[in-house]
Automatic annotation (TrEMBL):
The keyword Ligase applies. Its cofactor is Mg(2+). It is found in: Cytoplasm. Belongs to the dethiobiotin synthetase family. Homodimer. It is an enzyme of class 6 (ligase). ATP binds at residues 13-18, 49, 109-112, 170-171. Its EC number is 6.3.3.3. Pathway: Cofactor biosynthesis; biotin biosynthesis; biotin from 7,8-diaminononanoate: step 1/2. The keyword ATP-binding applies. This is ATP-dependent dethiobiotin synthetase BioD.
């Protein structure tokens, strides 16, 4: 049976794409698809987040992008300014379900945080998750300030009847400060869900084969890896 997992975050530029790639790489041996509903900040022809996941995770990943808007803004704003139709949650759900008929794992990577608007009616990734009845993996920063943002994201999920699969730190410093070290224990408390990994800072710059070979060591067993907090 196919699994659909949505990957969101507590904000932007916190490592969602790299975490998505790590989950895809750890699923080697399975047919994996990554779906990017709305890619912003890139013009046609430039490789987007879905392509980056495929580059890092390996050739077993199918990369799909539903819409692209050139300005680096929230999807609803970027679509409106470009004069293009926005992405709707039902389109995300339909695309994910179609991919699930041919893949064992479908990863849907959001844009920015959970409640970033897809359209002017206020639709979000949470609405797509609800249509899919799929869990959400939350990507969070390591350092100071992450606990509040993580708690708010988890609360937003619970208030909508959605399941938080867990939290992954998107960019763990090689020499973590006091807050980052303490947050290893505090993040699961804030989220009310397990901490399922920590991807090292700079991992996205690794060559694809090295990234794919190391990815499972950054993720917990629940995501196909070997990482533990100890």
């Amino acid at each position: 049976m196919s699994t659909i997992l949505l990957v969101s975050g507590t904000g932007t530029e916190i490592g969602k794409t790299v975490v998505t790639a790590a989950v895809a790489a750890a699923a080697r041996g399975r047919r994996v698809a990554v779906l990017k509903p709305a890619q912003t900040g890139l013009v046609p022809g430039e490789p987007g987040d879905a392509a980056e996941v495929a580059r890092l995770a390996g050739g077993h990943v199918t990369a799909v992008e539903l819409a692209r808007f050139p300005e680096p803004l929230a999807p609803a704003t970027a679509a409106r300014r470009a004069g293009l139709a926005p992405v709707r949650p039902f389109e995300v759900a339909e695309a994910a379900q179609k991919l699930a008929t041919e893949h064992d794992l479908v990863l849907v990577e959001g844009a920015g945080g959970l409640l970033v608007r897809f359209d002017d009616e206020g639709s979000t990734l949470a609405d797509a998750a609800r249509l899919l009845s799929a869990p959400v993996l939350v990507v969070a920063p390591a350092g100071l300030g992450t606990l509040n943002a993580t708690a708010l994201t988890a609360e937003a999920l619970r208030s909508r009847g959605l399941s938080c699969r867990g939290v992954v730190i998107g960019s763990m410093p090689s020499e973590p400060d006091l807050a980052s070290r303490c947050n290893i224990e505090d993040l699961p408390v804030a989220a009310g869900a397990p901490l399922l990994g920590a991807v090292p800072a700079g991992a996205g710059a690794l060559p694809g084969p090295e990234f794919a070979a190391r990815a499972s060591s950054w993720l917990a067993q629940e995501l196909g890896g070997t990482w533990t907090t100890r």
